[in-house]
Amino acid sequence: MAEQVLSAHVPATPKPAAASRSGTFVPRLITGLGIVFVWEIVVRAFAPAYVAKPSAVILVIPKVLSDPTFQKALGSTLSAVAEGLAITIVIGTVLGLLMGRSPTFDRVFRVYVNGFNADDHRAAVVFIVVRILGCRPHRNDHLRRNICHYDERGRRRSLGAP
What we know:
Blueprint: H1 17-46, H2 54-65, H3 68-101, H4 103-118, H5 121-133, H6 142-148
Helix pairs in contact: 3-4
């Protein structure tokens, strides 16, 4: 049987990521501006009192950004995100190392890890909050009350109740 050698020209250096994205930037920009334009026209024509117009939102941005209440809320949110990320990194690293080193830990946690990867992560947050905090009514704990369906007085409410 004869041997055949296949050859192909392979460039020495790959294209930089910025060069490959430049071909899609302009169409995406035009599409985004088109959506904003249609949004503005439709809102002005059909629901000016009920839906925010993009032009009005743009005019309010500097005022909102300079508001101390917004800055405090932004700092609080970013702090909570950073704390959650740090906790997740530590727990995930420890769990990953345990699963990689021990077949027993791998068998125990594999189902949960694969289940959380396959599931919507927003549902996982609700599951974790309910699992950790439990479904007990507490005053001024809106998150637990809404997830566990308790009203302000600690009575169990139906799922259809607001």
